[in-house]
Design a protein that fits this description.
single chain; alpha+beta; 17% helix
Length: 185
């Protein structure tokens, strides 16, 4: 009969295995909970940037100590009851006046014209407009988001701005399918 409580070598081996198993379970959980996550997109609202069925790699650390920028593609919990997160592009930033008029985005009463080359760092330009339209003033922790495919996108135009604490993370790249692999811009 083995006396495991008196055998230090056996005890060390058991402890070593227990630690290995605990790490094997907790590290993937901690990584997907707090750092990174792969998410399947089941929406048409970001087409053609992101297709329905694409798997996107999400960084939950991107906004640790930083704020989203105009043009960033984010995944967030919708401000209404839903078990599915949404993916949209940040258009309006805290403190800005947002409105839509005749199919155009207006920021602080000026027409926002997006560049369709999402590889550029300056996402869109704001051009003068004569009158200040009806709209929404974003709070200090609010962002206005829209889908790239605005004809089918359910976004801030319908549910209003989202809060900073509803943002899960920033979409970095598409992982799947193979013909869509690349950075998300």
């Amino acid at each position: 009969m083995i006396r495991w409580h008196k055998d230090k070598k056996l005890r060390r081996e058991i402890v070593s295995w227990a630690i290995t198993i605990a790490l094997a379970i907790s590290l993937p959980w901690a990584t997907t909970t707090y750092a990174f996550q792969a998410t399947r997109i089941e929406q048409l609202s970001m087409f053609p940037t992101i297709h329905d069925g694409d798997i996107v790699f999400l960084s939950k650390l991107s906004y640790l100590g930083a704020n989203p920028k105009r043009g960033d593609i984010i995944i967030f919990e919708p401000p209404y009851k839903s078990d599915k997160a949404l993916i949209k592009r940040v258009i309006g930033l805290p403190g800005e006046w947002m409105s839509f008029e005749n199919g155009q985005i207006l920021i602080n009463g000026k027409i926002f014209v997006e560049n369709n080359d999402h590889t550029k760092t300056d996402y869109g330009q704001i051009f003068p407009k004569v009158q200040m339209p009806q709209g929404t003033r974003l709070g200090d922790d609010e962002y206005y988001v829209t889908g790239d495919n605005r004809d089918v996108s359910y976004d801030s135009r319908a549910f209003g701005p989202i809060k900073r604490n509803e943002i899960i993370g920033k979409a970095l790249c598409t992982l799947w399918p193979v013909n869509h692999i690349g950075l998300v811009k």
